[in-house]
Amino acid sequence: MRYELVIFDNDGVLVDSEPLSNTILAGYLTELGHPTSYEESIRDFMGSAMHRIHELVLERTGRRLPADFDEVFHGRVFEAFERELRPVTGVTEVLEKLDADGVPYCVASSGSHERIRVGHRTTGLDRWFPAGRVFSAQDVGRGKPAPDLFVHAARERGVAPERCAVVEDSPLGVRAAVAAGMDVYGFTAMTPAEKLTEAGAVSGLFGRMAELPELLR
User: Fold this and answer.
1) How many other C-beta atoms are found inside a 10 Å radius of the C-beta of residue 118?
2) What Cα–Cα distance (Å) separates residue 44 from each residue in 36, 49, 98?
3) Residue 189: what are its φ and ψ, rounded to 5°?
4) Which single residue of 29, 68, 74, 143 has CA 20 to 30 Å from 114?
5) What is the dihedral of CA 158, 163, 166, 167, to 10 degrees?
6) Beta-carbon count within 10 A of 214 CB
7) What is the 3-state secondary structure of the chain?
8) Are 124 and 157 in contact (CB under 8 A)?
């Protein structure tokens, strides 16, 4: 394999969390007086860090979200995770293949460390992602689409950006990976291929996780 590090996004790539979390987010924003549909939540917030939600709502309405917004939102999300969250179909086989081939990998997520841990514990993915393989937007000053998180993950793993492949499913994540100088592979299970292509120079597109290992060769 030509890459020295494969960096996975988390939500929608490792764990099938986007439908759950965006349904909850849209409902909570609407409850707070900011009418938001599920489709709008996917369009505006999929792949973003929490600060982006606060910034966009303030920019659009001139009103700040409640001080306990993150706490309440995550509480609802974690309850849903415990009941319903599953790994993305085929991702465990991909991780087993990378291990068998001796290819290092990690996760770099816009979500908090707590969100990543809860999702991985619930789905059993924690066995593949010990602490040294987990990076969050909490670790850097700016989340995606800024490149900071991906650059940080590569630096911590001791790999040059040009030797990294990023697996992303959101335009924000694609833009961040491109800005970091990394090859990016777009997972189209939830996002139309053209949206990922428009976001940057995608090295490959795939709709089933089982297709990824061959693309990375």
Assistant:
1) 21
2) 10, 11, 32
3) -60, -35
4) 29
5) -110
6) 10
7) CCCCEEEECCECCCECCHHHHHHHHHHHHHHCCCCCCHHHHHHHHCCCCHHHHHHHHHHHHCCCCCCCHHHHHHHHHHHHHHHHCCECCCHHHHHHHHHHHCCCEEEEECCCHHHHHHHHHHHCHHHCCCHHHEEEHHHCCCCCCCCHHHHHHHHHHCCCHHHEEEEECCHHHHHHHHHCCCEEEEECCCCCHHHHHHHCCEEEEECCHHHHHHHHC
8) no
Instruction: Please give the backbone phi and psi of residue 125, each rounded to the nearest 5 degrees, phi first.
Output: -80, -10
pLDDT tens for 122-145 read 999 999 999 999 999 999 988 899
Block residue for tokens 């909850």: 24
Picking from 39, 196, 17, the residue whose alpha carbon sits closest to that of residue 107 is 17
Residue pLDDT, tens place only, 30-80: 999 999 999 999 999 988 888 989 999 999 999 999 999 999 999 999 999
CB within 8 Å of 178: residues ≥ 6 apart: 184, 199, 200, 201
